[in-house]
């Protein structure tokens, strides 16, 4: 057995050839293009399998989490919808309970129900009071049925007065003080007689029956009057709500432009009439002058149709030969001068005719829109607007 070596073998010496070979291998690797693609785990063949596995796990986890979030959102939306529905139901029930119409319905039902109960109790107790009156009659050597008839008359009178007073209160009838006192006397007097008679006939027990009958009769009266007051107040509330003005509904519809205020009245109509008469008179004078052969010498009126700029709108009734000539004006006295002058006169007459048309339409329709006048007369909108402004300013 060889003894263990105390010192390891020395590393072999690195030769220049080995270094040169290593460097050459490194250069060869460095010369390979696209090595940066190996840094991407999805493109590296060694890590692609693991990359796909982890990607699948991540996508599954994200899908589960998204599913849970959607479930929570659905539960929350359902809870909110349930709460909103419950709140709407409670609010609707509260509105129905406090609405004047529901109050009228409830008061009508309760008035009939509780009124009948109170009157039935009053009539039942009046039986005990009738026994007391019958005993009083027998004690005075009289027939017992007379006591019962007396109680029926007294209780029936009081009950009838109470019912009728409730009907009057429901109808809103206002009675004078004397009538009210008479009603009170008709209600209380029979009850007092019944109480006294029962006390004398059967003692305190009969009096208690009479007092109880009177109290229930008073309760029936209060039920009728208070219910009638509540019904009247509810009717007033309904009338007030129906008569309250409602705000105008907002719409997104496009509204028509409000026409600009125009001058109206006798002064405006007189101005339009004067302009129309003046225009017709000028046209007649010109036609008469043309018929007699006289050449017009008046300077053309440019206030009706501006021809100084090429951008001015020309009436559609003026022909192309009537537009201003863009060439220099010829010398005075030539045929061209006469032709240009004639065109200017024709434009002036055309302006007068247009002004007369606009004035006539305004006389028939003082509040007409400028667009309507232009469509009716065949003129441009700007021309109609200028003529209308001159007419409204009272220019001749």
From TrEMBL:
Swiss-Prot/TrEMBL keywords: Membrane, Transmembrane, Transmembrane helix
Amino acid composition bias (Basic and acidic residues), ranges on this chain: 299-308, 333-352
Membrane recorded as keyword: yes
Chain ranges passing through the membrane: 117-136, 148-168, 180-199, 205-223
Region (Disordered): 240-275, 290-352
Name of the molecule in the record: Uncharacterized protein
Naturally occurring in which organism (per UniProt): Nocardiopsis ansamitocini
């Amino acid at each position: 057995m060889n003894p263990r070596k105390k010192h390891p073998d020395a590393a072999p010496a690195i030769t220049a050839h080995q270094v040169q070979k290593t460097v050459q291998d490194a250069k060869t690797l460095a010369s390979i293009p696209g090595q940066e693609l190996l840094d991407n785990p999805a493109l590296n063949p060694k890590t692609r399998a693991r990359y796909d596995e982890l990607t699948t796990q991540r996508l599954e986890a994200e899908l589960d989490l998204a599913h849970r979030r959607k479930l929570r959102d659905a539960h929350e939306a359902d809870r909110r919808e349930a709460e909103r529905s419950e709140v709407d139901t409670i609010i609707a029930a509260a509105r129905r309970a406090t609405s004047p119409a529901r109050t009228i319905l409830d008061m009508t039902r309760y008035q009939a129900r509780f009124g009948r109960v109170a009157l039935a109790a009053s009539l039942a107790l009046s039986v005990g009071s009738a026994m007391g009156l019958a005993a009083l009659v027998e004690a005075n050597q009289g027939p017992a049925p007379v006591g019962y008839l007396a109680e029926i008359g007294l209780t029936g009178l009081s009950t009838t007065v109470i019912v009728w007073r409730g009907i009057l209160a429901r109808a809103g009838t206002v009675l004078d003080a004397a009538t009210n006192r008479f009603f009170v006397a008709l209600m209380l007097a029979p009850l007092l007689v019944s109480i006294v008679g029962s006390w004398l006939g059967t003692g305190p027990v009969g009096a208690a029956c009479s007092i109880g009958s009177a109290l229930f009769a008073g309760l029936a009266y209060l039920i009728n009057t208070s219910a009638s007051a509540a019904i009247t107040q509810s009717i007033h509330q309904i009338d007030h709500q129906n008569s309250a003005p409602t705000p105008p509904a907002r719409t997104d519809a496009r509204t028509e432009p409000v026409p600009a205020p125009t001058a109206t009245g006798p002064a405006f109509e007189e101005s339009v009439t004067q302009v129309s008469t003046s225009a017709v008179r000028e046209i007649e004078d010109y036609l008469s002058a043309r018929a007699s052969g006289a050449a017009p010498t008046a300077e053309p009126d440019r206030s009706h149709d501006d021809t100084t700029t090429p951008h001015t709108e020309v009436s559609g009734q003026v022909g192309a030969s009537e537009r201003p000539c863009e060439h220099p004006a010829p010398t005075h006295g030539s045929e061209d001068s006469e032709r240009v002058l004639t065109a200017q006169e024709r434009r002036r007459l055309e302006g007068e005719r247009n002004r007369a048309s606009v004035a006539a339409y305004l006389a028939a329709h003082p509040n007409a829109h400028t667009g309507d006048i232009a469509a009716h007369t065949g003129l441009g909108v700007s021309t109609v607007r200028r003529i209308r402004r001159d007419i409204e300013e009272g220019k001749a």
